[in-house]
Fold each of these.
Amino acid sequence: MSEHTTTPRIAMRGISKNYGGVRAIRQADLTVQPGTVHALVGENGAGKSTLIKILAGAEQPDTGTIEFDGKPVSITSTTDAIRLGVQTVYQEPQLFPDLSITENIFVGREIKRGARVDWAAQAAQIQELLDMIGLPQKLATAPVGDLSIAQQQQVSIAKAVAGEASILILDEPSAILTDAEIKVLFSIVRKLTERGVAVIYISHRLDELFEIADTVTVMRDGQTLDTYDIQDLTVTKIAELMVGGILTEQREPRSFHDVAPTLELHNIDVGALLRGINLQIRPGEILGLYGLLGSGVAEIAETVYGMKQPTGGHMLYRGKPMVNKGPAAARRRGITLVPANRSAQGVFSFQSIRFNISIGDLAKLSPLKGWVSKRRERDIALDLIKRLGVKTPNENQPISAMSGGNAQKVVIARQLLSTPKLLVLAEPTQGVDVGAKEEIHRLIGQLAESGTAVLVVTTDLAEVLRISDRVLVVREGSIAAEFGPTATQVDILAAASGAVTTRKAS
Amino acid sequence: MSTNLESRAPAAAGAPSPRKLLPRLVTGQEIVLIGIITVLWILLGFLTPAFLTPGSILPLLVAVAPIALVGVGMTFVIITAGIDVSVGAALMVCAVITAQTMVATGVPLVPAVLLSITVGALLGLVNGLLVAYGKIHAIIITFGTANIFLFIGLRLFGSSTVNGVPGTFDVFGRGAAGRTLGIPHSFAITLIVVAIAWWYLRHAASGRHLFAIGGNANAARLAGIKVKPLVLMTYVVTGALVGLAACFVIAQGTSTLDQSVGVGRELSVIAAVVIGGTSILGGRGSVLGTLLGAILVQTVTSGVTQLGWPSQLSDLFVGAAIIAAVGTDIVRERARRKS
């Protein structure tokens, strides 16, 4: 623990939280001094968000104590947290698109004259705030929905600060920003710390911590490891702490050079999101794409599946030029996507497991086109449920009643049924337990064995190394580095978060 | 109707002028509506000379009153991204209870009006509690309660109409008793309610919160807005206004109240609100627009009748207007997401 003589603004001690049977965090400690920027880092699922939600009053801890300016407090609701001056700026701006900036900033604490909102008084106060966050005065009355994402985030910060923040939590604020916008963000953060605000800064971009953070707390597997002064750290050191040393769980290198690629991307641009993406994937190969949120990694998957149209470059699919007008066209070619947001895009939640398996390839179930054989549907579903070890009383159970891991197995099982030529998997094991993770990885391996080219887009470091034959690291819309299966998690994390500044000349 | 977007583009430099501190007084959609209504009235004036006379316009305003009145509550509800499809059935319940009480006891005007408003508010309370605290979408809840209210209403009617309704409510009616200086009382009351609601939505903090709830309910909760009580309030207000509207409807009818009272009213009300520019997605809307929407809907209905056209044509025109209004709204929202 680094030494401070002042009373900490906030001291969280021995915090634990379980969700159902899953332990989100256990015995976490976090001590933040006023007037400092305290970075909270850890891989996805390390427990950062849960810890922050507890501080913001959105979740209640199972155990642990919280002290505010040396006095014990209990935070049982967001209102409690706000009263203490805990303000959170979430990744997705929590704003009202049809209300003006001024109204957004004052919502819930309007300056009133009688029952009436005192517009003039609010306008007077807003000027200083807009100056501080660097937004032009003329935007005060603009509806927030018409602003850019970066401006919306500035509004979110202004909103948080206007509420007399004593602790400002910034949850991955830089993920959606450009470099110039990040500079603006940092200058705002510095102004706030000068005023004595304690800032908790969550970020995956480790390089930027050296510009903005004073202290760093590292979380891993739901625990806080320790708190360090930033001077004592390097990007590589933080990456090592995050992943817990060097893991040696790697695939044997395999060679695919003798087969023609299933898919080739040549200098693909997508607006300002992707620039000059080149990649190749061959039948039976598992290619991992790793990148932080906002790096463009998700857009690569969407482009391959026809959800985004390239604005430059070309794609070759099995040697022939490919233009995908949309997912249906990609599907016809034998390209399938298993989306990350399963509940929204992947499953028909009220329908049975049986339905969810067979919807993948109804044609295979129909002796006559357009007619689904119930019996065959059932047989195939039962067979897959058995093969995959899906835990369910029967095949008619609605999929929404299953755990995340089992639901994801069902969604992947759907792909086994149709054996695509190219499978794009986004975050295949997000939010599933360890056992299910194993099985999903095994399933992906099986698919590759049967000749499917698998493109895995993931922000899970351990996963990308474990299942990929090759890993491409995406940063700021370009491929930043390529690794074979012998790379370490630290190599990849460092490349993705900006330690490796060398970029391939193109 | 896209004038909003243009005027919103940050063009002028410098600090905002005091006038611009407020939400805009009249939105693009309202100007368009005023334009359409004016054109329609002039056209109808040419085609049927009788149209632009007090004998034709005053009944039109009287007919607008109950729709616009319930429309005010409905605007509140839809701004919070809810909807209430039970207002027609609720109006039936209010009307039958009030009419039967007047027949049975000869209760005077003020208590009769209060009775109707109370019944309406109670029905609104049922909707509001279920929507705000039940976490089920408003259209499902109110579709369910609409059927229950309909059952209650029809049971109260029994197998017969309510006959011999006294003239207690003539003060809200079409006749001379219903006017002062030529202005129908029911329409004047509606204007007052619209004005109060307009001020409330524009200037009162809790009024602005309704827009916040419709824009992003979760963010509203995080901002410390008491979302559930406010949502509940919108349904209770709607119910109370349904109760008042029921008095107008009784006054406009004959001394016999039959089982068709209120049936289908929810559709004209929702049409008025949506045509008036309130976003069905929540977060944006105005009661002034709703009033204009109600006048437009009633103008089309009366116009079709006075021209001697088949009455189904008014359904066609209103339907087209709804699609145009909702379409503009959604196109606008998509344009915004892309930018």
Note: Chain B touches chain A through 38 residues (CB under 8 Å).
Amino acid sequence: MADLVAQIEKEISGLKLKASKQNVGVVSEIGDGVARIEGLSDVQYSELIDFGKGVSGLALNLEQYNVGAIIFGDYTKIKEGQEVKTTGQILQVPVGEGLIGRVVDALGLPIDGKGPIESSAKYPVEKIAPGVITRQSVNTPLQTGIKAIDAMIPIGRGQRQLIIGDRNTGKTTIAVDTIVNQKDVICIYVAIGAKSSKIAQLVKKLEEHDAMKHTIIVAATASDSATMQYIAPYAGVAMAEYFMDQGKDALIVYDDLSKHAWAYRQVSLLLRRPSGREAYPGDVFYLHSRLLERAARLNKEYGGGSITALPIIETQANDVSAYIPTNVISITDGQIFLESDLFNAGLRPALNVGISVSRVGGAAQTKAMKSVAGQLRLDLAQFRALQAFAQFSSDLDPETRSRIERGRRITEVLKQPPYSPVKLEEQVVVLWAVINGYMDEIEVEKVRDFEQKYVSHLKLREKQMLSEIASKKELDEKMIKVLEKVTKEFVRTYGKH
Amino acid sequence: MTKRELKKIVKKLAEVSFKEGRIIEAQVIKSIKVLKFLPQYEAIAALGEYLNSIKRIERQFTMVVETSIPLSTATINKMRKIVEKKNKITKVLVNINPEILGGFKLKIGDEIWDESILGKINQVKEVISSGRSSGSN
């Protein structure tokens, strides 16, 4: 107690109290998380305003005599005629290592019942994205641990890769798998408009896979106000920026931006902003572009940190040409398209390789993966073309049949259950084996069993070579010769296992 | 007449209803008569807007003093003189609010000068709370 008093005395010892001048206004209208305030003539755009009783707001509409503001917290406490003050501050959230492993709300306050958060700094929620001078191109891969993605739609650190698909196609699973696979990357998962039960399940899953120790969850649940859902992704990226400024790599998942656009539409309509297509406001493109532009790879002079963004968009009936999906597709550096038909056919992840693309990730792909990915993509493309053709013909020439058979085996190899990321070296050897025809003789149903046993066999016999692939990140002639020998031997003895 | 044009007219009428910060009653009656000639739906909106504008302008020339104990007329006049060096004052209102504990608060238009004890305590509170952790459960 005495210590506490001494500390407080120390903190206020040099304090000089002065008459404070404040700009005030009066609440003229209040409702649905939005207030209209008369006065506040000196308020700045995006300035934090104080409603008293612990309720704050953000000035978003500056008119001649009125200010439109969104409210954080319980707006039912606010009354018409109540005095409102400007604060001269912009909205900030706590950032730092203390947030890792925690579940916080859109203002950075803990909601996981684990006590207060020790944070050393605060970052503004709205910030201009890093400029051209500070950036460098994407050159380091971000391994998702998902074979199909790492091989064909590679993601680099600093990239913005959209995950798009209908409901229940495994969008969140891909994002969570990626988080589970990270070791040195700080992950931030921003849940927008999600059910609280889903967030609880997600936290449990991440804890089970020991991934919460490098993850922050920013939750704006379906029961939170639209204003909280609107600022949640900006709060999340501010937390990620702290780690980027420290020279670290961060990964941020926005789950999902369709609901974010809905929340912003609600806020804009309540603020009486003019509405445009599908009642979205005119700046709905800027809403997402300014958010995703904050994902970057800084150059060495600026610390070399990065923020990789994985925004998620939910489509209706696989329609990627709707308003918000097309906007976000045009902003991002590529998209992973998931289809419900493929999901129902048992293909997990339900990836449509044909229209999924990574525009910059190829530059970041490791040499080892590049050596197998090119052939894999080609084989798969031929398989897709021939598969459609083969449906109408019963009599196929041997070459066509062999291509189809190989395609079926590749498809089988690319299937992967959730929460089971595969290491880079294991991905490389398995994909090498399938594209070089070592699985052609294996029955399709047994391919996954073959894969498992093959990897275990290599771990036992050629552990040195696997660790060499992992460290050198390439597949040289010597390694290929060893692989050929070991694989031939394994294929010969596989049936006898 | 568009909404914008109507607002502009109302704004002009409100401005001419004041002379040196004082409201001119005759001008207000004249303005209301003008606005009454508008179609009914426009007149209702315009009169509401006119009233708001009058209140807004009047606020700029009104000094509101908030104290915990009643002040003498001499003190209030002294305050008014100091304020009038920068801002024309035509109306003075005094509020007694024991919650501010001591000192006074001065409000002119949208500006408040806080010299109250409560304000000072809040300043100390801010310094202490900003030196501590930001989160709470």
Note: The first strand of chain B starts at residue 18 and ends at 19.
